Amino acid sequence: MKAFCLNDAASALIEREMPVPEPGANDILVRVHAAGVTPTEIEWYPTTHTNAGAARRDPVPGHEFSGVVAAVGSEVKGFQVGEAVYGMNDWFADGATAEYCLTQPACIVAKPSRLSHAEAAAVPIGALTAWQGLYERAKLKVGERVLIHGGSGAVGVFAIQLARRIGAQVFTTASARNAEFLKQLGAAHVIDYKSERFEEVVGKVDVVFDGVGGEMLHRSWDVLTPAGRMVTIASSSEGAQDERTKAAFFIVETKQVQLAEIAKLLDSGELKVFVDSAIPLAQASAAYFGKLPRQSGRGKVVVAVRD
User: Is the CB of residue 84 less than 8 Å from the CB of residue 238?
Assistant: First the structure.
């Protein structure tokens, strides 16, 4: 099979011919149709190291995917060859920027039927991150005020929708060109981060969901109410020395029940996904290393492995 692997210098993805993985007793082999692109994944520890701390060679990125079950291990229950699935792999496993990938049954569910494979591949990391950040970490409640930084991004578009879904009042920072789009998703107030200071617009909020980090995160502590909660997913916050930031930072986990619930919301039309662009597998390296211009600036870039 064709696979795109990170080179030793972590400067590019290199196309390699690799054997199709053999599923173990508890594995599922997926014939990949599309994989989501998360550029910061290249910098993460699990991309370059094993669970035991050893260096990984030729790691394959792309841990969210949509495809068709190609083979199942002898102990696998509940999945059949030919079934369309979507999901998110363990960070230490090889990803789906390849024609096939191995996964675990707990990492996938049936693909939302109304979505294309490219659309489905844009869902898992963004939707699960928004779900876990708002519902589990911040415990956002009806009527609360939430500020979402990076509203038009791959996570932000889901965070706005999920916050609005439970009746929160949503403020978001984004570029002015996306203001009307984000209001249609459920944002009550869109703040142009280039020309406005969000502190002067939002007053006090109950929750900040930060997908930007840096100065935006630093300034956001001052807009929280005394009982306010901060959640950040910005990669710059990982390893931070500040205790508040360390406590606010989290990394998304695969949770099958949540993937299934998200699929229901997508199929009902209550939740929408946005694909910035779907690029061919041959352009995977350019997508990961910022050499392809964003088209709409909304949602996720995906690699279309198959038509």
Answer: no
* Residue 34 counted as domain residue: yes
Q: Tell me, what CATH number does 63's domain have?
A: 3.90.180.10
Tokens of 220: 């956001």
* Spatial distance between the Cα atoms of 204 and 215, rounded to a whole number of angstroms: 18
Q: What pLDDT digit, counting tens, does each position of 277-297 carry?
A: 999 999 999 999 989 887 777
Total-model pTM: 0.95
Centre a 10 Å sphere on the Cβ of residue 274 and count the other Cβ atoms it contains.
Answer: 18
3-state secondary structure of 279: strand
User: Could you tell me the residue range of the domain that residue 7 belongs to?
Assistant: 2-123+273-304
In terms of domains, do 10 and 116 share one? yes
Query: CB–CB of 15/282 below 8 Å?
Result: yes
Round to whole Å and give the CA distance between 10 and 247. Answer: 29
How many angstroms separate the CA atoms of 51 and 11, rounded?
22
pLDDT tens digit sequence for 1-13? 999 999 999 999 9
Cα Dmax for the chain = 59
Euclidean distance between the first and final Cα of the chain, in Å?
Answer: 16
Q: Write a three-state SS string for 47-81.
A: HHECCCCCECCCCCCCCEEEEEEEEECCCCCCCCC
For residues 166 and 206, give the distance between their C-alpha atoms in angstroms, rounded to a whole number: 14
CATH classification of the domain holding 168: 3.40.50.720
Rounded to whole angstroms, the Cα distance separating 67 from 215 reads 39
Cα dihedral 35, 41, 47, 51, rounded to 10, equals -100
SS3 category, 94: coil
**Residue type for position 270:** E
